[in-house]
Write a structure and sequence with these properties.
Layout: H1 2-21, H2 25-41, H3 43-46, E1 50-52, H4 64-72, E2 76-83, E3 88-93, E4 100-102, E5 108-110, E6 121-126, E7 130-132, E8 137-138, H5 144-153, E9 159-165, E10 171-172, E11 186-188, E12 193-195
Parallel strand pairs: 1-2, 1-6, 6-9, 7-10, 9-11
Antiparallel strand pairs: 2-3, 4-5, 7-8, 11-12
């Protein structure tokens, strides 16, 4: 059963990678700008005291302007960095004046040695290959973001708003998932703001 689930996820990943690669660069830029604008206007982003995101790869939604905006209003900013000891990704606070460096899989990450679990009113911008309207997602297959989400949600008194970002075509009727997969609370696409049904 689990093998069938992983195969189904892998098939969707391949389809989405292909669809993203076939987007015209201008279409990708316009969609990213629309998605960022939707998130900036959201209550979840506006009230956040901590803003976490990801460093976009290749044709992913370009979300870095969100971090500039969050930082400009005094919000703490966090990006994933790979913990070589635990062999997982964890959040590390980032000051935009500090250059990012290429880390594991050539993903740009903050320099430093300390990791932090964000606290307070936390907005987490979540990547994915595909989502459905209940908030379930398919990532890259390592479960790294699921673990970071869960760790942040478990902090007492944290108020976490997880916002999935996707192009319209990445929102499917349903995606396969198991008990280790963390759902997002909202989805932002170029044409929709979706409050999920969790």
């Amino acid at each position: 059963m689990r093998d069938a689930l992983q195969m189904a996820k892998a098939e969707i990943r391949m389809q989405m990678v292909d669809r993203r690669a076939r987007m015209h660069p201008d279409e990708r830029v316009a969609a990213s700008e629309a998605i960022v604008a939707r998130i900036m206007a959201s209550a979840a982003f506006q009230r956040a005291t901590s803003c976490c995101s990801f460093s976009p790869l290749r044709e992913e939604v370009q979300v870095m302007p969100l971090l500039d905006q969050a930082s400009s209003r005094g919000c703490k900013v966090f990006l994933p960095a790979f913990d070589e000891v635990a062999r997982v990704y964890r959040f590390r606070e980032w000051d935009q004046s500090t250059p990012l460096q290429a880390g594991r899989w050539n993903i740009m990450e903050p320099q430093g040695s300390c990791f932090t679990v964000p606290e307070g009113d936390v907005c987490i911008i979540v990547p994915g290959q595909a989502f459905d309207r209940t908030g379930m997602r398919i990532g890259y297959g390592g479960g790294y973001f699921d673990r970071m989400l869960l760790e942040t949600r478990r902090v007492p008194d944290n108020r976490v708003s997880a916002i999935g970002v996707a192009y319209d075509f990445q929102v499917l009727d349903a995606v396969p998932y198991d008990e280790q997969d963390e759902a997002v609370d909202f989805l932002a696409t170029e044409s929709e703001w979706i409050t999920t049904k969790q």
